[in-house]
Amino acid sequence: MPPARPIAFPLQVLSWLGNQGTRAIVAVLIAAIAVPPLGELTRPYVTHAIFLLLCISFMRVDVAMLRAHLRRPLLVLTATGWTTIAVPLLVGSLARITGVDAALPDLYLALMLQATASPMMASPALAALMGLDATLVLITLVTSTALVPLTAPLFAYVFLGQTLSLSPAALGLKLAAILAGALVAATAIRLAFGIDTIRRHRAPIDGFNILILFVFASAIMAHFLADLVASPFRMLGLAVLAFAVFFLLLGTTMLLFRSVGRERAMALGMMVSLRNMGLMLAATEGAIPGTTWLYFAMSQFPIHLAPQLLRPFAERLRKPLPSGETDHGLISPASE
Predict the structure, then answer these.
(1) pLDDT tens string 234-255
(2) Can you list the domains of the chain with their CATH numbers?
(3) C-alpha dist (Å) from residue 175 to 54, 169, 208
């Protein structure tokens, strides 16, 4: 028994960290900002961190849940089309109409990379923490992520042209390689340990996930304090824009999908507004301009803070409707 103790203690620490829920997400951001030197150490490992986050997400996919939602494909297909095709088309068209592409090319690049990215792999977990329909988010996330190696190069060709250092074909190949590699690794882990073992160790896996998020966040936020001191108004403007984009995507999605129920509409809104910019960063190997990098950094604030801020709103949505009213066939995660 003594040899098990060195392993048991780290597992307990990871379990405690994993049980902190949305508080840990906020703490990750604060810690990443508070210790800038760590960012310089972790920056070379951003791609590795994104790959591990993808592996963990694929590893935990519940195949039975996926099949259940595939029996009702219309909502999934509609949500997939909205987040994968309509959102980048709208963002790109709006940027061109307003002249942002010509006036602020680096910011335009950031917005297009954000719009063409798939939803964050952590979206189902965040939806579950907020008591929303995580299974719907999960299946839409899987379908959207599968399409990104095809749609991202297309939109890069149409809207970005030579703005991106990578060719659209190279971007698609890198995205496909990262996603396929993570899927293969996750499948190997599932076969080796079994899905039941993975479920039993949910808390320590969540804790490990948070540590990897810290690696990514610290790399992204490495120069935040220095940039804030040097250009406070610029940073404030990027922060306002990042929150505006987040809530615009959230609100528009909730409005478009309100007919499927308040909870599901919010779950889809959270998924669409939480874009996996880390995946795009990994695919481009960090070869992006300074303003693009800064916008990615400021976008971490709505990503990390919104789940905590919106949780009370999500709890209100889950309250029973007045007698005689229905919520268009809403099914809670527990009932599935």
Answers:
(1) 889 999 999 999 999 999 999 9
(2) 45-211+242-317 (1.20.1530.20)
(3) 12, 10, 24
